[in-house]
Amino acid sequence: MDRLPLEGVRIADFSWQIAGPTCTRYLGMMGAEVIRIESERRPDPYRERSISRFINQSKKSITLNLSHARGIELAQRVIGLSDVVIENFAPGVIERLGLGYPELRRVKPEIIMLSSAGLGHSGPDMKQVAYGTLIQCFTGWSALQGYPGHAPDIGGIWTDPVVGMLEVFLINAALHRCWQSGEGQYIDLSMAEATTMLLPEPMLDYSMNRRVPEPLGNQHPAYAPHGNYPCKGEDQWIGIAVATDAQWQSLCQVLGLTELPADPRYADALRRWQNQDSLDRALAAVTRRHDALALMVRLQQAGVPAGASSSVDQLWDNPQLRERGFFQTYREQDGVMQELPATPWRLDGEAGGNMTAQPVRGEHNTYVFEELLGLSQPEVEALVEAQVIY
What we know:
By secondary structure, this protein is of the alpha/beta class. It is built from 17 helices and eleven strands.
């Protein structure tokens, strides 16, 4: 491969907030031409936040007033030149605009359309308000966050980026099918279903054993020791997970705790799990004297699963990530060179990702309306005056 995998693919991007823009950022970095359709009439609230610089990279931007019939007509013409349409409005909004899947199929029969909403586009709960944190509560995700005996913890906005990554997978699969069969498709993605996809063990445990799961903190339902342990320095930690007797013996040897394997409280996996609180205290008393990264290397070399918990600065300097080219440099609108994470995957022979700065809203109006759609400059100026291109 001497080119990016999605070169030649064009995407009409109506998405906003976090999930959809996260998806189209990755698709743009994979080579697709992403045309983000925005409007001064109802700007994306995340456009003014620092996260915007990250999730709106590798795209083009045009402004269209979709409350105007001419704006809808122009949007349909952009879609007619596209392979994929992505939107994550509330259920019913895109249909009321006249841009639902049946209408788009008449514009382009092989179009792929992905619509994402909190609880999907059918069923009794489809119109419930559904931001990422609410979805985490709705699905039970938050009930499993936190520590035993404490209140549930929302635990950050994980649903949106997870949904965005799933959308990347779904769209690539749909494109592959379209290239083979010539057929488009409609994908109705529920953010709640995408979130419950990450909870297979609790769901199966309840289905099979009728056990209601509770927060475990960093503990494991079967393994011990299993957790994050303090290391030398301020707020420095190492994660250690022991699943076998051999790993347990190696851990004790590396830490110099040669007396622990003979302690009857830790003689086998079951008793280590039953006495994990006292075991964690014994380990923490020793790990806090070690550098997290150095201890991680020693434990891994001894066959013990371990990983240092890294701050952002430490991640930036991580030699493994640097060696894999995880970070990529690009030029911002003001000319300053910046560095951000690229795609978290690699394909054999793939060229470097297409990373460009977040576009100014409407930056590519001339390119799209004049070069792609063939409008004359006076026509575009009249549409700007009428606040159709707005």
